[in-house]
Q: What sequence folds into this?
């Protein structure tokens, strides 16, 4: 079963870009962007995990084809607790992501009309350093090597790797997902859905819900990863 994997990129290497533009009605506006390294392959990170170059390059190419090229590569302010992007949390869109040697360099444009985008711009104006953190679904081997089934879900805007990590690890640790083509399904929800499609009464519904909670609480066998 695939796990939710996130990896923080050092904020010191990101550059803030402010562009002056003229909108459709002739008004001057500013575009705010973050540019720099967002993902790294072949280097062991602080959690002891390694992304093989081939695996990460393939995930980036698919993300570019399915999301960036179709103008749907949205990212959130801080990570969501699932692989999907939740619209109320959207703060930016990834305009480009390219692998150069073992590093993936990207450009994120802040969306000024989104509530989280307004917050991001306010932080940038105050000189607050913001970082980018990838959110993927995949499996990790015993030696910390990420498997080749890696699927990139989004690249999110975060404040720091420590406080969000300590909090989100508790949210993620009991979750796991199935990758079915381009769709990612939470296992516990999928199990419940299959059972509820059958004929049932109040007694079996209680049993299904109990099994659903067991799926969620089964920490011994299911542990999601904060990278």
A:
């Amino acid at each position: 079963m695939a796990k939710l994997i996130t990896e923080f990129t050092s904020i010191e290497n990101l550059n803030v870009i402010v562009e002056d533009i003229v909108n459709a009605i002739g008004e001057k506006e500013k575009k705010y962007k973050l540019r720099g390294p967002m993902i790294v392959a072949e280097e062991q990170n602080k959690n002891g995990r390694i992304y093989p170059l081939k695996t990460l390059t393939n995930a980036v190419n698919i993300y570019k084809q399915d999301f960036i090229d179709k103008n749907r590569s949205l990212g959130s302010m801080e990570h969501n607790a699932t692989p999907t992007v939740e619209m109320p949390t959207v703060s930016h869109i990834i305009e480009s992501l390219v692998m150069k040697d073992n590093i993936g360099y990207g450009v994120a444009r802040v969306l000024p009309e989104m509530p989280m985008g307004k917050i991001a711009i306010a932080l940038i104006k105050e000189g607050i350093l913001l970082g980018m953190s990838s959110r993927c679904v995949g499996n990790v081997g015993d030696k910390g090597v990420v498997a080749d089934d890696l699927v990139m879900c989004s690249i999110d805007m975060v404040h720091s790797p420590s406080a969000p990590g300590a909090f989100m690890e508790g949210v993620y640790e009991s979750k796991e997902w199935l990758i079915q083509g381009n769709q990612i399904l939470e296992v516990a929800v999928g199990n419940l859905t299959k059972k509820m499609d059958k004929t049932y009464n109040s007694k079996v519904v209680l049993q299904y819900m109990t099994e659903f909670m067991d799926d969620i609480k089964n920490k011994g066998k299911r542990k999601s990863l904060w990278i």
Summary: The helical segments are 53-68, 115-125, 162-172, 187-196, 202-217. The chain has one domain: 3-167.
